[in-house]
Amino acid sequence: MIHTLSGGTSPNQFPAISAQQLGAASFRRDYGVKYAYASGGMYRGIASAKLVIAMAQAGLLSFFGSGGLSVDVVDQALSEIQNALSKESSFGLNLVCNLTQPEQELALVELCLKRQVRCLEAAAFIRITPALVLYRLRGLVRDEQGQVVSTNKLMAKVSRPEVASAFLSPAPDNIVAQLLADKQISLEQAELSKQIAMCDDLCVEADSGGHTDQGMPAVLLPAMQLLRDTLSAQYQFNNAPRVGLAGGIGTPASAAAAFMMGADFILTGSINQCTVEADTSAAAKTLLQDINVQDTDYAPAGDMFELGAKVQVLKKGVFFPARAQKLYQLYQHYPSLDAIPAAQRSQLENKVFKKTFAEIWQETCQYLHQQGRSEEVMRAEQDPKYKMARVFRWYFAHSMKLAFAGTTQERVNFQVHTGPALGAFNQWVKGTDLEPWQQRHVANIAQLLMAETATVLTTRTRHWLAPAHVD
Q1: C-alpha to C-alpha distance for 95 and 344, rounded to whole angstroms
Q2: Distances (CA, A) of 270 to 7, 47, 413
Q3: Do 251 and 268 meet the contact criterion of CB atoms below 8 Å apart?
Q4: 15: exposed, middle or buried (C-beta count within 10 Å: 0-12, 13-18, 19+)?
Q5: Are 449 and 268 in contact (CB under 8 A)?
Q6: pLDDT (tens digit, 0 to 9) for every residue of the chain, 471 residues total?
C-alpha cells in the first residue's frame, strides 16, 4: 500500500509557491513592493542612484549607500533618484552610524526629512542616537483605525541582541525629552513615541561582506525573533516589528532557508556589487565575478582600526587582507612609528605604501584640517601611538580608493568588501548568461533569485509531503 497525504491529496497537487507569497505580506504592502526583498546600501555609493532607480522601477526596495559621502553628494544623488521616479516609488537611504561626527549623521537625517525620504536603513549603530529618534518621531501619526504608525520607516541592521533590543523598544525617554525641549518634535509626537518601536523592520545581519561580527544565521535569526516577540508583548505594540535576514544570501537555497526559518524578508548585499548598476570599477567587478565561496578573508576595519574590528573582503588576487593584518600586528607590538625596525619600515614605505611615513602624515594632516578635525592632529602630535594609527589608517582609505578607481597596476592593494554569498552566486550562474558581470542587472537578479527560491520551496515541500514508503 502507498501511504498518501491526509485526505488522499497527492504531493503533486500541492499548489506551487509563488515569489510573491514569500515573507511577510505586510512588508510588501507597507513599502508598496513586489517581493519581501531588499538590496542593502553599499559604502560610498556603490549602491548607486542608478541601482536604486533600477530597483524602484522594477517594484523593488533598495537603499542608496551614503556611507563615506558628503551631504552635498548625497543630496545630488537623492535629486537624481527623485527626478527619475514617481512619488509612489519606494526607496531608502542607508545611514551609517557616525560616533565621531554625530553632526554628520544629523545633517543626513535633516536632508532626508527635507526631501521626504520615507525609509532609512540604519547600519552599524550600537545605540539609539538623537538623529534616529528625530527621523522616527517626525513621521508619527495615527492611521484610520487610530493606531500609531510612522510615515518615516526605519530598518535597523543588527547583529547583536543588545542593539536589537534598543531598536525593538520605544525611543529612549531622555532623547525624546531633549528633542521636545529643543522644539524639534511636538508634544503629540513625544507622547505617541511610547506606543511604537524604534524600527519597523529589524534586519538580522549574519556573516556579511564588509563590517561583520561573523554571526551564524541559524543562531541569530531565531534569537532575534524571540526577542522581538518578548519585547512586543512587554510594550503591547499593536504591530510588532518584522524580522528579516541578511548575510550569506546569494542562491535560491540560501534564500529558501531564510524564509523557512520564518524571515519576514531578505536583504542582499554582496551579489549586487558585481552588477552593471553598482558604482565601482570594472576592474573590481572582474575580480569579483570569478570568486568562489572560499575567496574572502577577514581584515582589520580601517574606520575602527584601533579597536580591531573586522571587515570581510576579497582575498583572491589581492594582498590587502594580509597587509592590513600585518599593519594591525605592528600597531599592537610597537609604541610608535619610530620604534618599528628599519627593515620593516623600509618594506612598508617602498613596497606597500610607496610613500614615506612623513609624506603620509602630511597628507593626513591636510585632510583632517580640511574636515575641521584639527584636534586630531594635535592629539597625534602628542600621542605617538595615535599618530601611528592615523598613518596606518591612510592605507585603508588608499586601498579602497584604488579599487573604486580600478587602478589595475595597484590591483594587489585593492580593498573590496564582499562576502561568500557572491562566490555561491557565481557558481550558481556559471555557464549561463549571468556569468559575466556585464550581463548582471540588479533588478533581474532579485527577480530571478526570488522566483527560483519559490521553485526550490515548492519542490522541497512536495518532496516532504511525498509518501514515506511503499508496503
Answers
A1: 39
A2: 45, 11, 20
A3: no
A4: exposed
A5: yes
A6: 223 344 445 666 778 999 999 999 999 999 999 999 999 999 888 999 999 999 999 999 999 999 989 999 999 999 999 999 998 999 999 999 887 788 999 999 999 999 999 999 999 899 999 999 999 999 999 988 888 989 999 999 999 999 999 999 999 999 999 999 999 999 999 999 999 999 999 999 998 877 888 889 999 999 999 999 999 999 999 999 999 999 999 999 999 999 999 999 999 999 999 999 999 999 999 999 999 999 999 999 988 888 888 899 999 999 999 999 999 999 999 999 999 999 999 999 999 999 999 999 999 999 999 888 899 999 999 999 999 999 999 999 999 999 999 999 999 999 999 999 999 999 999 999 999 999 999 999 999 999 999 999 999 988 888 776 444
CA distances from 77 to 35, 53, 66, 271, 404 (A): 25, 11, 9, 22, 18
Cell reading at 341: 625596525
Phi and psi at residue 435, in whole multiples of 5°? Answer: -65, -50
The pTM of this model reads 0.92
> 203 is written with which cell numbers?
534586519
